[in-house]
C-alpha cells in the first residue's frame, strides 16, 4: 500500500492508503485541507515535509519532496510525442533541402577569381628568366667575358 501523490501547478494532493474511516493527518499545515483520505496542500513552496496518516492503531508515514512551479504547463504523452515528431520532420526537411541545393552547386563552375575552367588542363610555359641572373653555361663564357673585377 502506497500513498498516491498528484501535483498540479502549486497544489499537491496526497491520498492515504488506509481505507475509509476517521483518518488523521499530521502535521496540519495552514495552507492545507483534509478530506478523509485526501490531504490537499495549496500553494506548496517545494520544501520537504514529513507526513503521516493514521486510523486507530494503523499509521502510514511518508517523506514528501515535491517540486512545484507556478507557470508550468502540463503536457500529456501524446502532446510531447507530437512535438518531438514535428521537430524531427522539420529538421529532416531542412537537411534534405541543404543537401539538394549543395549538390547542384558542385556541378557548376564558379565565376570567382582564381578559378580555372574545367576541361583540358593546359600546360603553362616556364617563367621567363631574368637575363641579369642567367646562369653561366659551358660555351657561353663570351657573354660574361666583358665583366672584369675592379680593383679599388
TrEMBL record:
Q: Which segments cross the bilayer?
A: 77-101
**Mostly located where?**
membrane
Q: Does the keyword Membrane apply?
A: yes
Residue span of region Disordered: 107-139
- Pfam families cross-referenced by the UniProt entry: Ig_5
Q: List this protein's GO terms for biological process.
A: cell surface receptor signaling pathway; positive thymic T cell selection
Tell me yes or no: is Transcription regulation among this UniProt entry's keywords.
no
**What would you give as a GO molecular function for this chain, any one?**
transmembrane signaling receptor activity
- Where's it found, cell-wise? Cell membrane
Q: Which UniProt keywords apply?
A: Cell membrane, Immunity, Immunoglobulin domain, Membrane, Receptor, Signal, Transmembrane, Transmembrane helix
Q: Which GO terms describe its cellular component?
A: alpha-beta T cell receptor complex; external side of plasma membrane
Q: Which PANTHER family match?
A: T-CELL SURFACE GLYCOPROTEIN CD3 EPSILON CHAIN, T-CELL SURFACE GLYCOPROTEIN CD3 GAMMA CHAIN / DELTA CHAIN
**Name recorded for this polypeptide:** T-cell surface glycoprotein CD3 epsilon chain
What organism is recorded for this protein?
Chauna torquata (Southern screamer)
Q: What is the lineage of its organism?
A: Eukaryota, Metazoa, Chordata, Craniata, Vertebrata
Corresponding gene? Cd3e
